[in-house]
TrEMBL record:
GO terms for biological process: protein folding. This is J domain-containing protein. Gene3D superfamilies: DnaJ domain (1.10.287.110), Urease metallochaperone UreE, N-terminal domain (2.60.260.20). SUPFAM superfamilies: Chaperone J-domain, HSP40/DnaJ peptide-binding domain. GO terms for molecular function: protein-folding chaperone binding; unfolded protein binding. The keyword Chaperone applies. It holds the Pfam family DnaJ_C. It comes from the Eukaryota.
Amino acid sequence: MGIDYYGILQIPRTSTTLDIKKAYRGLALEFHPERLQQSNAQEVFSLICEAYDVLGDPFRRAIFDQFGEEGLKAGVPTKDAFIQAYHYHGDPLLTYREFFGTDSPYADLLDYVKNPPVAYETVENKAAKEKRPPIKHPLVLTLHEIFFGGVKKMKIHRLTFVDEKQTTTEITEKILSIPIKPGMKPGTEIVFFKEGDQHPAHEPADVIFITEDREHETFVREENDLIMTVKVSLEEALLGTIVTVNTIDHRTIRIPITDVIDYDYEKIVEGEGMPILEKYPEKGDLKIRFSICFPNYLPKASRELLAKGFRLAKLGGSDCKHHETINKIVLADKILRVGHEERLPPI
């Protein structure tokens, strides 16, 4: 049985991100090797930091919750890709320093206020704080969200000052409202200025959300266009068909296909794509591509009929792109196969 990271941090599996940070903060200060002079302090401290390194990352935590420590460190195969094995970098003080901003178990950020370094003072005796690097998060959006736009709520956890002197910090939650414009492109950066951790010696970092498109069951987005692939039979490819499309804005449209469908054929429906950000409410196009399913078997009569159609097409001077003759022959054969009693009376 592998390591139980929840047990190391002494928290239940239902803990929130805030619970995980609070548990790590307390245990890391308690078991810091400089503070706890015991032979196994370094080993315990390293396990605590490794547990936070796993559970503090939503992706690693999800893998651990499903596959345990063995799956996390061995890698997990999926139907689309292989999730690489996780290996702790082995430097618990690096994890500690990234969380606390210092290696010392005693400073707890107060020394910067009681004895501020000269480098951080101006002539007005105010802190000239250096700004920390931005904190970037992916923001995965569905095509529905991008199509209609709106506001998306995201919860973040940050250290904030809890006293007037701005010397003590605690972990708090904050809800950020992210504006989503119709047609927003993937890779768009949405910046929230100075929403990172508050620190006596540094300006808070900017929090940046970078948009990504979530995979859709029907459509693939290419710039402002939507691409969908439809499977058709050989009969439909030669004689035509009707494609039913359930659009992102909850409409149903039926598109007749009257041309012969080959591998390069693409039906373009103008104005049924994604909104164009710079020209809203204009929209891109819907492009329908086709995958042709060939039959596994053809009866002899069908082979002879097709052979006859192709011979007549050649005699008429038609090449592979001129299909009207074949269509007429196939349709005529269908009519002849209908019994007299089933035929409609003449008009």
